[in-house]
Amino acid sequence: MIDILVSAFGMVVDPQVLLTIFLASIMGIVIGAIPGLTAVMGTALLVPVTFYLPPLPAIAAIVSMTAMAIFAGDIPGGLVRIPGTPASAAYVGEAYALTLKGHPERGLGMCLISAVVGGILGSIVLMAAAPQLARIAVQFSSAEYFWLAALGLTSAAFVSAGNPLKGVISILIGLFLSTIGIDITAGQVRYTFGISELKGGLSYIPALIGMFALSEILRNVVSPSLKNPEVKPVKNVLKGIGSEAWKWKKNIFRGGTVGTLIGALPGASADIAAWVAYAISRKTSKYQDKFGHGHLEGLAEAGAANNGALSGAWVPTLVFGIPGDSITAIVIGVLILKGMEPGPQIFITQPALVYAIFFSFFLANLLLLPIGYAMIRMSRLVLRVPQTALLPIVLVACMVGSFAINNTLFGVSIMLAMGVLGWFMESNDFPVAPAILGIVLGQMVEFNFTTAMIKSQGDWSTFFARPIAAGIGAVTVSLWMFQLVTGVLRTLKARKENS
Amino acid sequence: MKFSDVINGTLVMIAGIAIFLEARTFPAVPGQRFGASFFPSVVGGVLAFAGLALALSAVLRGEYKPYATAPEWIQSRKKLFSFILIILSVLFYIFAVEYIGFIVTIILIVFGLQVWLGAGKVRSMLVAIGSSLVFYMIFSVLLRVPLQSGIVERFIF
User: Fold this and answer.
1) Does A225 touch chain B (CB under 8 A)?
2) Cβ within 8 Å, pair B46-A172
């Protein structure tokens, strides 16, 4: 074990890796601080670059980019009440109230400290839990994997806010898109509409860039105002923040833990973690009436939760190959490209690399302190970058990125089509993240289902023949039943009230 | 464009049925019950059912009108054209880049979009030239992506 840790540490302190982490951090902190550019979008746009890097720097770049971006989203949230990423939306009102009182530095300072602590807590949980879970997961067969993927998809559909039926439809759209191309079991060509480029399947990265980045540009370009808000400089960011953080240490700790657990749930990402943590701190607080008027308690808890969730999402990703959120959905694609098929096997075949990835989490979250501090000080500059220049440049990044994956212009066409689809779905309240999970997990669901069926010669009971499979299966099926029944009841109730 | 869930559900249902029917045409592997058509049939079938449920629940709740709502920005001709211009820019890139090369294509797109969105011409040109060169340096020179070259690329690099 010790020698694995030593060689993992050696891998991380390699100058190339450190430089990549540093550059990706700068990219992340800027992307997060600019409203309209999100951590997921940054990940999608970073992938074409990581494509050309060795495995560790590629993964470490994504880890540090996202850790920075999720914190940086708090900065415009606190200063101008516009969350830089959706993960900050839960508590922008609280942070902005402090700015109105003339103390933006107190809110942002607390967000920074809690983000660092929350991120480190999440990393500890990841490092402790993932290898243990992997030990159990080694014994899983296709029946267990089928149910795990089904449970992941189920949770993604029902966790996403709004109408759960729309979440289900979104997942099915993703599953359908995953069937495009030559199928893995029989070699049959499916749904290519005569386009030969589609035979290899729908190229995954251009689809992601379209759904997360192009659709965002389409939304932003018609947004009410393209003008930049006025921001005053922020001073004395870390003054007295240590004692404040100590005062709310319980909240930070609980927020980080709750956030990590929520992050590990497929489909529930950093933004949901922040909402839940903020609600918990409010409900259990002795000062409930102070909430919403610039009270630090909720900020401490929710600020820790979203950064914790980021690390938590990697637990199911690395152990089962089931992404915990949209960012790790993209990560799975990168892992596969880099020859690290996610699943319990990588803990046995490439333990040093796995631990090196864990170390990069700690490094990124520690680095958040100085880089986050510098960003708060420079926030005025970044918030002055004009949207009119930003949108065209991000558009170019989308086009170059989707070209660079396969070096074909067909990738750009896919990006455009998926971007318009994503924009249409969002405009009609269909969440996009479940569709991405569907695209990622589609092959896994189909492959494990078919394998299990072929092995059992068509005997359906194989899905409940082993205890773990039966357990996960029972949970999944009862979730479906529960949603079905409550959905029907809700509709009937609404009908009664109408008539 | 926001449609009523009756429309959305019906669209989803039609798509589901189409996926299902297409899946039924995939040949089966002899001696194997679960071939290429099974999974897409399930996806198509459930999709059709979910679409039906969405449309039906909207009707039952009495929330099916108006059938379509145009977003506010469509009223503004400028915003509508901004939206279309983003899509046209991507299409322009796809069709033009092979002929005029990466750098010129990007300069045209970035310059045109900025001016349309209301930025000054000089600044827009500087940003356009700067960003096209930076992207070219990162992707073509550093990462060795074979970006299309035109006259400018051959002249400079």
Assistant:
1) no
2) yes
What is the structure's pLDDT at A77? 87
Interface subset of B 62-81, CB within 8 angstroms of A: 62, 71, 73, 79-80
**With 70 as the cut, is the pLDDT of residue A161 above it?**
no
Quote the Cα angle for A425-A427-A432, to 5°: 35
Please report the pLDDT score of residue B105 as a whole number: 96
Long-range (24+ apart) CB contacts under 8 A made by A218-224 are A218/A419, A218/A420, A218/A423, A218/B83, A218/B86, A218/B87, A219/A423, A219/A426, A220/A36, A220/A387, A220/A391, A221/A391, A221/B79, A221/B82, A221/B83, A221/B86, A221/B117, A222/B71, A222/B73, A222/B79, A222/B80, A222/B82, A222/B83, A223/A36
Amino acid at A181: G
Q: Decide if A388 and B119 are in contact by the 8 Å CB cutoff.
A: yes
Read off the pLDDT band of A287 (50, 70, 90): confident
Residue in A327, A317, A322 with CA at minimum distance from that of residue A41: A327
A231: tokens are 């921001």
SS3 A139: coil
**Residue A225 pLDDT exceeds 70:** no
CA distance A315 to A378: 34
The minimal CB distance from B110 to the residues A188, A393, A403 is found for A393
**A19/B34 Cα distance (integer angstroms):** 50
Nearest by CB to A222, from B16, B83, B143: name it.
B83
Instruction: Tell me what the pLDDT averaged over chain A comes to.
Output: 88
Of A186, A416, A491, the CB nearest to B60: A491
Does the pLDDT at position A224 exceed 80? no
| pLDDT value at residue B134 | 92
Question: Residue A53 phi/psi, 5° resolution?
Answer: -105, 160
Q: By the CB < 8 Å criterion, does A407 face chain B?
A: yes
In A462-481, the residues whose Cβ lies within 8 Å of chain B are none
Contact A329, A444 (CB under 8 A): no
Per-residue pLDDT, averaged over A105-111, amounts to 91
Q: What amino acid occupies position B146?
A: P
Measured between beta carbons, which residues in chain B are less than 8 angstroms from residue A168? 46, 50
The C-alpha of B143 sits at a distance from chain A's nearest C-alpha, in angstroms, of: 6
Write out pLDDT tens, residues B142-154: 888 888 888 888 8
Q: Which chain B positions have a beta carbon within 8 Å of A387's beta carbon?
A: 117
DSSP string of A100-113, one letter each residue = HTT-HHHHHHHHHH
Q: Which residues pair with B3 in a beta bridge?
A: B68
CA atoms within 13 A on the CB side of A434: 29
- Quick: pLDDT tens for B75-114: 788 889 999 999 999 999 999 999 999 999 999 999 999 9
pLDDT value at residue A226:
65
A456 — pLDDT class (breaks 50, 70, 90): confident
B31 touches chain A (CB under 8 A): no
Whether A49 shows a pLDDT value over 90: the answer reads no
Closest chain B C-alpha to A218 CA, distance in angstroms: 6
Q: Where are the beta strands (DSSP E) in A32-75?
A: none
| Helix ranges restricted to H, A321-408 | 326-337, 345-349, 351-382, 387-406
List chain B residues with CB under 8 Å of A424: 1
Question: Residues 34 to 63 of A: which have CB under 8 A from any B CB?
Answer: 48-49, 51-52
Q: Which of A173, A389, A395 sits opposite B127 (nearest CB)?
A: A389
DSSP symbol at A431: -
